[in-house]
Amino acid sequence: MSMIPAVAEARPLLTAEGAELTHRRVAVCASILVILGVANISSTASALWSIWTTNALKSIGMFIPLVSLVLILRVWRRQRWQMQGTWWGLVVLVVTAIVVHLSTQAVLIFTFSPKWFVGIPPYSLVAFGYVSGAVLLFGGTRLYRAALFPIILISFVDPIPHIFNVFVDLPLQRASAHVARAFAIALGQKLTPDQMRLMFTPKFGMFIAPGCNGIRGASTMGFIALIAGYLYRFRWRAHALVVVGAVLLGYVFNFARLCTLVLYYLVALRVTWLQTRATMGDYIIGGCLFLVATVLLFYAIQRLGEEPGQVKPDDEMVAPSPLKPGPALFLRLIAMVIFVAVGVVGVARAYANGRAHVAEEKADATAMGQFPQHVGSYTLVRLWNENYYTGPLIYHWAEYAPADGGAHISLGISPVLGAHDTLICHTARGEEPLWAGQIAIPMAGGVLVDFSGSFFNSGATQYLEVNTICNGASCGEYSRDHSHFGFVYSKPEPQSIFTQDPARPIPILIRAETIDTTLPADVARTQLTADIRTFLASVDLKGMTQPYRHE
What we know:
alpha+beta; 50% helix; 18 helices; 4-stranded antiparallel beta sheet; 15 strands
């Protein structure tokens, strides 16, 4: 006979209230552990926080984890905190943590076109994997199916993908500028020919920036409608209609905002003290219109929710289990505690290592890099630093000149960037390469290092850039091109994979250029490649990156 019934009978029974209270307490403990377990994907969490706090367009993403957590707990409460978890959830959590750890030691980027690229793993996929694993570990497949919407919602932690900016954001910027310009001209106002600037006087006007095209308001309205439709239990047609309508409403009210702002500027031409308060006027106009749009949206949602055919029936409340939590649940809790401990220890070690080098990194932002005076027949002629506009260091740079008066070579080392591909920065600025591919170059001592290369023509110069990544004693970055896509990747050292080594990969960038823009691109690239090969034949990258490894 099966032993399962006997074991079940041996577990003490509880009253309905006592069972729900016991399961609720376990659910609270599980929720706290899941939140602390984010330490295992701390690099992704840190990157997302940086995106939310520096990119106004994506700042709405910081509310997604909180909303997703509340909605999952809401579903779990309707199931009376049932604990039907599966160990597969722990597998998903561990795999997610390992993938994130590998991503901090190497770079892997899929490129579908010069303007469309995806870093692996995407932040949205990491968040989805982590939440999926946590739900499966404690709530099981039943909770997973019931909470599928908030689990998918977590994928919007990075709400606006880069491809959306390229193909939607910029065209909408031009459309917004056209509408505002047409409205001002219709009112008889003469403007300067600049399509993105509406100058009412030589010193008074407005610039239609990408953020002025309504995408922030439209995306916010879309997320409000998406979540509200879920709470109102709309059927999928009604849900899709509400979301699309909300997005369009956001864009329409943004056009109304721009036209109202034009009226403000026309009034300010006569009431001059308003000219110095135009920014605040824009905020007040935009805030009032957004409030009106939100009220209209919820009015439409409420009216639609009163239609019986548009709303799904409520789920029945699940009766609480009369059994006390079994040993399997406590084993899963212990496993989660160990998972959390590993992540917290790793974060603590990285934090301690970071504090040990805070003074050094602050000095790096102003101090020049450490480069040899001579590299083969090349002589150091100039040192400088490249910094973000906010101050932090990006690259230490050194420029070397050959003895024969040929092309100068610039060498950049970034001690803080981590895994990074420079081609992404170029494409983000709209600089598309004339050529991109793989170059294997022998270094000092005959060591062969793989570089990703790209060739550009800026109109004033033609230049070749090759970049690689150094992980400890080895260096290399690889690219593979196919007919419809390609990818760039680096190979981390084995010891960095199996340890929690806080040292980050160090990007290396070498650049050679010519001011002769009349040279055919293939000829210029061949010449500059030969110059870089000659220079790197005497370079020891392991020695050059040693001061920045913090080993």
